[in-house]
Write a structure and sequence with these properties.
Helices cover 33% and strands 20% of the residues. By secondary structure, it is of the alpha/beta class. The strands form three sheets. It has a nine-stranded mixed sheet, sandwiched between helices. Strands 6, 7, 8, 9, 10 and 11 form a six-stranded mixed sheet that branches. A five-stranded mixed sheet has the order 3-2-1-4-5. The radius of gyration is 23 Å and the shape is globular.
Length: 557
């Protein structure tokens, strides 16, 4: 039995479940090379790539789940049925339309180890419900079933936050001031004021430690999830402070952007932690699953885990919490209509594509001005560790693509975390991004709790916490301004090659940690194919490129 999941909208993509197990998923942006790949069209590149990779033809698919956002999803069934039938030359196919928040819930719960769990979904917004839009939702997963317990709704009037009338106070329609807004959309709204565009809320998180909040957020204990947060909240306060500053608006925002970012971060943490504490009081769960774009915020996530840990509650956060994970949830929802699903977390997060030596060879032969050799694993590991020790920059493409927006060793740029100047060098010479943005450490699983103040394992780079004082001077290029780091831990069972590489680097330095950042430059998707990797390699100051067991250099090195 085979089910296909499809997400349409921003971060569209596809996923496959075969014989009750999740076997593949990829975001369309990795293939069409358009960041976030926002379109109302079916992501045919993703679907075709997955079908080819798994040796499946479209006619083998038994059921299809489709999700979107900010729509009445059931009304779109015929529209997308016609597209699929025309493209794949079939007369009909079974389709189930899956609501946005349910898709988030299905994805996180069915990739957890829990047999029952409370599921919290929080994002910018989901599907339409009685003219309003999903905002935050609480579900209960029990066995193979997921049921909605309660939810908060927001107005759909201001769905496009990037429009000036939806984030700049003087442009706002006063009749909308008191309309409810989601926590995620409020964070996005404030990020737009600072100057960060769609999908750039991570920049707000990175800038926040440089500032102080303009507002002291004091949350009252919640009696239900329908709390107050409105369209004008916080935005009006920021504008009032501008009016009293006696400077131009542009100068005020530039001067205060770190404080505005900290205000957004404090709001987010205050609201979401209050929801989590309410859930714990009311439902007394043994486990909590978190999904939706809000839970890509690593600082918030670790604070949630800390609250949960104090109450002996386990937490699972989905590595593709944003909409690029929607297709996985849609696939699970569709498959449950024809069969049970098996929980299998061992495949996470490497669910994308990989490439054969023949494919790599064919690609390399097309490129002039490069030299390449093939090494065995052990020689390759020694080579990479030595170059990193000498402060060289190494791009890596190995194995199947990671799901989610974080590079986790299969599509990564690696560097020496021990050199103080590495952060600035990478930002200016390779990544071409803002100097305030931090880089993440990748560490062997056995050492994560020794170096970092973690309360639970952090395999997906979704938790940020303090670096213990004794280690801060050892790895300065991955320690943020507030002494925190966004950690990825690696185990032997999930990525033996990377685990061995970290151990080899430790033999040279005494530090089993590397700097890990996504293999891309600013405003581009993470590389997917060998050709993507070579293109990025040639236009940056990356010193060595590793594609599987190939070592590639520029010129005749």
């Amino acid at each position: 039995m085979i089910s296909l999941g499809i997400h349409v909208g921003h971060d569209r993509g596809a996923a496959l479940i075969k014989d009750c197990e999740l076997v593949g998923s990829i975001a369309e942006e990795r293939l069409d090379r358009v960041k976030y790949s926002h379109s109302t069209g079916i992501p045919f590149k993703s679907i075709d790539a997955l079908l080819k990779y798994h040796n499946i033809v479209f006619q083998d698919i038994d059921n299809i789940g489709i999700s979107f956002a900010a729509v009445n999803i059931t009304a779109l069934k015929r529209y997308y049925l016609e597209q699929l039938c025309e493209y794949y030359k079939v007369e009909s196919v079974d389709i189930v339309m899956v609501s946005h928040h349910l898709a988030h819930a299905e994805a996180v719960y069915n990739t957890s180890d829990f047999n029952n769990s409370i599921i919290l979904v929080a994002d910018g917004g989901g599907d339409l419900v009685d003219g309003l839009e999903e905002s935050e939702s609480v579900f209960f997963g029990n066995g193979n079933e997921i049921s909605l317990l309660e939810r908060r709704l927001q107005s759909n009037i201001f769905h496009k936050i990037e429009r000036k009338q939806n984030h700049l106070y003087p442009f706002m329609n006063p009749s909308f001031y008191d309309k409810k807004i989601s926590i995620g959309k409020k964070y996005e709204q404030i990020s737009q004021i600072i100057g960060f565009g769609q999908g750039q809320e991570g920049k707000t998180m990175g800038l926040a430690p440089y500032g102080k909040s303009m507002i002291d957020f004091k949350e009252k204990s919640m009696s239900n999830i329908d709390f107050e947060l409105t369209f004008a909240d916080i935005i009006d306060t920021i504008y009032d402070k501008y009016k009293g500053a006696f400077q131009t608006y542009q100068k005020f925002i530039l001067d205060e952007r770190a404080n505005i970012a900290r205000t957004a971060q404090d709001m987010l943490e205050s609201k979401v932690l209050n929801i989590v504490k309410y859930i714990i009081r009311k439902y007394k769960p043994q486990s909590i699953c978190l999904s939706g774009g809000v839970f890509l915020n690593c600082v918030l996530n670790h604070k949630i885990c800390k609250v949960a840990s104090e109450n002996n509650i386990k937490v699972h956060i989905f590595p593709a919490s944003g909409d690029d994970g929607q297709a996985i949830g849609a696939a699970f929802a569709a498959h449950k209509l024809i069969s049970e699903v098996k929980k299998k977390t061992g495949v996470l997060p490497f669910l994308g594509l990989s490439y054969t030596n023949r494919e790599i060879d064919d690609c390399l032969k097309e490129i002039l001005g490069i030299h390449y050799e093939i090494y065995d694993d052990e020689t390759l590991i020694s080579f990479i560790a030595d170059k990193l020790y000498r402060n060289k920059i190494v791009g890596v493409l190995r194995g199947r693509t990671e799901i989610g927006p974080r590079a986790l060793g299969h599509r990564s740029i690696l560097a020496n975390p021990m050199w103080q100047g590495m952060k600035d060098y990478l930002n200016s010479k390779v990544k071409h991004r803002e100097d305030f943005r931090p880089f993440a450490p990748i560490v062997i699983e056995e050492e994560q709790f020794h170096v970092f103040d973690l309360v639970q394992h952090s395999p997906y780079m979704l938790l940020a916490t303090t670096v213990k004082e004794k280690y801060r001077n050892q790895i300065p290029s991955v320690v943020h301004i507030d002494d925190t780091a966004r950690i990825q831990s690696v185990s032997k069972s999930t990525d033996l090659f990377m685990h061995k590489l970290l151990l080899q680097f430790s033999k040279l330095t005494g530090v089993p940690i590397l700097l890990n950042t996504s293999f891309n430059v600013a405003n581009e998707p993470i590389v997917e194919s060998p050709m993507d990797a070579i293109t990025t390699f040639l236009k940056t100051e990356i010193d060595y490129l590793i594609i599987e067991n190939y070592i590639i250099t520029k010129g005749e090195k």
